[in-house]
Amino acid sequence: MPEAFAIIDDKHVPLARVVWVSDLPHFCGNEDCDVEGRYEIRIEGDDSLFASREERDETMNRLGDWLDPR
Ligand SMILES: [Zn+2]
After folding, report:
1. CA of 34 to the centre of ligand 1 (A)
2. Which domain holds residue 54?
3. Longest dimension (CA), the chain
4. 10 Cα: distance to centroid of ligand 1 (angstroms)
5. Total structural domains in the chain?
6. How high is the pLDDT of residue 18?
7. 54, exposed or middle or buried, with CB in 10 Å at 0-12, 13-18, 19+?
């Protein structure tokens, strides 16, 4: 059975709640930004999490398996 959750920013997030996954790392140029270089993952309810590259890739893999299990 495919995994139904992905770990994003130390949280177990149900894949069913993921709206989209950023292809490019976050960059806003703001000196106070603490998510520079992390990948935004949009969650239902106008919420966003910021994943490391490894978390982003793993989330994409799990989404692929979950959406199209074989
Ligand atoms: Zn920023």
Report:
1. 7
2. 5-27+36-67
3. 45
4. 19
5. 1
6. 97
7. exposed
9-68 pLDDT, tens per residue?
Answer: 999 999 999 999 999 999 999 999 999 999 999 999 999 999 999 999 999 999 999 998
CA 61 to chain centre: 11
For 15, counting Cβ atoms within 10 Å of its Cβ (0-12 exposed, 13-18 middle, 19+ buried), the class is middle
CA of 67 to the centre of ligand 1 (A): 30
User: Distance of CA 64 to CAs 6, 15, 28, 61, Å?
Assistant: 12, 10, 29, 5
Report how far ligand 1's centroid is from the alpha carbon of 24 (Å). 13
The model carries a pTM of: 0.89
